[in-house]
Amino acid sequence: MSSQPERSDDSEATRDRLVDVTIQLLNERGNHALRLADVARESGVAVSTIYAHFRDRTDLVAAARLVQFRSHAEGAIDRVADVIEPSLTSAGFMESAMWPSLLDPDDADARTRRWDRIEAIADSRHIPELASQLQDLQSALNKQVIELVRRGQDLGAVDPNLDPSAVAMLSQVLRLGLALWDISGDTRPATEDWAHMISRLFSSILPQGIPTSAPEK
User: pTM here?
Assistant: First the structure.
């Protein structure tokens, strides 16, 4: 009987399952309460199987955080890319590419995405390998967002005098920074006042002379 390769399709499927279950448990309990025994039980495997795919608990957590970070970040890129087209106007770029997750800070899906990314970044402080992987991933994603901004400039939807990397970074920093909204309680502004502020802020990246207002939700 011929031996099976070490990394068979079943092996890859098992690894993916372990990562998916780890993500689920991290979301439910947090890193501090994650136990390998629970991951194994929920995955339907023995604890020894985890060590066949990952060096240790830290390696498993790093793999899960990287998948979380990548999926949310690339999803954001795809959503912006979908609205960049030759007929795009300044208003269309703002409303479709820049506004949605900023206009409604209480959107549950957007909140989950930003906190997953923040938790991945926080864990990377103590996992050098994860920190390096996130840096490489974020650098690659930055380049994609910068390219999208350049396309917006070519279409006349973004001020051509602005540095595309600065516009790209502003958009990403604001989205991630909305975590402060989540923990600000009754000191948060009214949603409509926040939308007006975002409208004023993003009017500065439009081609000069083109007014903007917050789109109706």
Answer: 0.79
